[in-house]
Amino acid sequence: MNFQEILDTDIYALTDEGLSKGRSNIEVVDAMLKAGIKVLQYREKDKKSGVMLDECLQIRAMTRQAGCKFIVNDYVDIAILCDADGVHVGQEDIPVPKVRQLLGADKIIGLSTHTPEECKRAIELGADYVGVGPIFATQTKKDVCAPVGYEYLEYVTKQHSIPHVAIGGIKLHNIQDVAQHGARCCAIVSEIVGADDITATVLALRKAMASK
Q1: pLDDT attached to residue 1
Q2: Separation of alpha carbons 91 and 138, rounded Å
Q3: Given the DSSP bridges, would you call strands 86-89 and 129-132 parallel, antiparallel or unpaired?
Q4: Which family does the record assign (predicted)?
Q5: Quick one: which of 14, 18, 46, 170 has the most CB atoms within 10 Å?
Q6: 3-class SS at 41?
Q7: In angstroms, how far is CA 159 from the centroid of its own chain?
Q8: What is the band of 3 on the pLDDT scale with cuts at 50, 70, 90?
Q9: Are 3 and 109 in contact (CB under 8 A)?
Q10: Of 67-71, 144-148, 197-201, where does mean pLDDT reach its minimum?
């Protein structure tokens, strides 16, 4: 399954050790992979770079064995050192063309977008996929903008063919609605990493999304 197919059909999982109920990222990732997650982003903001690199090296080995795409948030250097499949950056991070120079043509670059103008620009810059959101209010990022709701999601779905991932406050109780508004892939953080039973939660999210 290629990256486009994964984004059309699956859940995009992210790490956040602070929300993982005392479990390490390695433990959580192991549970995610056992649940069949095929796209995983390492997102940690408050750890030392050496610690993050060590974790990413371990997760890279785990994801490679499981056939899961591994994306590193923001840290291009760590992505290169652990041979991740790609990087996800924000609007104020290293520009996509510069990231491409560092990573090469065969790696995946995702860019967070919040407006139609940002989506158009992401396509012009050569992003491989865009994050669309936050759909709802979220507490997993400190510097997040106001929720964009369904209007922007519907715009991207109807106006552009670039792969996109809906993100921001998506949980079991609302993922079906998000899918009904055009999302074919949803990025989930707290609902998965904070679950008592991660495998069961992933399966429930998949079922709810498929029943749109």
Answers
A1: 57
A2: 18
A3: unpaired
A4: Belongs to the thiamine-phosphate synthase family.
A5: 170
A6: strand
A7: 21
A8: confident
A9: no
A10: 144-148
How many C-alpha atoms does 112 have within 13 Å on its Cβ side?
Answer: 20
Instruction: Give the model's pLDDT for residue 117.
Output: 98
Q: How far apart are CA 41 and CA 52, in angstroms?
A: 13
**Which among 179, 182, 187, 164 has a CA at the least distance from the CA of 210?**
179
Binding site as annotated, residues: 41-45, 73-74, 93, 112, 138-141, 169, 189-190
In the residue annotation, 112 being an active-site residue is answered as: yes
Annotated binding site for Mg(2+): 74, 93
H or E element: which one contains 57?
helix 49-66
Residues 6+ apart with CB under 8 A from 8: 163, 184, 185
Q: 38, 43, 60, 69: which one is catalytic? A: 43
User: Is the CA virtual torsion 105, 111, 117, 119 positive or negative?
Assistant: positive
- Could you give the angle at the alpha carbon of 84 between the alpha carbons of 53 and 98, nearest 5°? 95
Token pair 């749109």: residue: 212
pLDDT given at position 85: 97
DSSP calls for 60-77: HHHHHHHT-EEEEES-HH
Active-site residue (options: 23, 141, 184, 212): 141
Q: What is the pLDDT of residues 143-173, one digit of tens each?
A: 667 899 999 999 999 999 999 999 999 999 9
Give 141's pLDDT tier (boundaries 50, 70, 90).
low
Q: Please state, in angstroms and rounded to a whole number, the distance separating the CA atoms of residues 204 and 190.
A: 14
